[in-house]
């Protein structure tokens, strides 16, 4: 399903079975953090900060950018393999909650400011 422009993505995520981010470039993709935090299994391209979020085979599946066959295979794999979907979703959510929650983000900013002040 392609919904077009959506203002409240967080309201739509619970209706999804998986989340796919086929970017050619990224910083640290907030959409991926949100999807993983909501407990969705993810397939994403290995660009920018995405590997900080997705450990291939543990917290999601990573594919080479621009490799549509690899992307399709990873999506098919998740559609077919329910235990894998559940495992990736659980591990991804835990990873986001443990490393990208508000407390961790604030600690990171505080540390950066402390280093800058020195």
Structure overview:
This protein has helices at 9-12, 30-37, 50-53, 68-80, 82-99, 102-117; strands at 19-21, 42-45, 61-63. It has 118 residues and is mainly alpha-helical. The chain has a single domain (9-117), classed as Glycogen Phosphorylase B (Rossmann fold, 3-Layer(aba) Sandwich). The protein has a three-stranded parallel beta sheet with strand order 1-2-3, sandwiched between helices. It is globular, with a radius of gyration of 15 Å. The model has no long low-confidence stretch (mean pLDDT 91).
Key attributes of the depicted protein:
globular, Rossmann fold, 6 helices, single chain, 118 residues, 3-stranded parallel sheet, mainly alpha
Poorly predicted spans: none
Distance between the termini: 51 Å
Strand content: 5-15%
Describe the strand arrangement of the main beta sheet, using strand numbers: 1-2-3
Secondary structure tally: strands? 3
Please trace the helix and strand order, writing H or E for each element: HEHEHEHHH
Mean pLDDT: 91
What summary fits the major beta sheet? 3 strands, parallel
Quick summary:
By secondary structure, the protein is mostly helical. Helices cover about 55% and strands about 10% of the residues. Helix 2 crosses helix 5 (about 80-100).
Topology readout:
Elements: H1 9-12, E1 19-21, H2 30-37, E2 42-45, H3 50-53, E3 61-63, H4 68-80, H5 82-99, H6 102-117
Parallel strand pairs: 1-2, 2-3
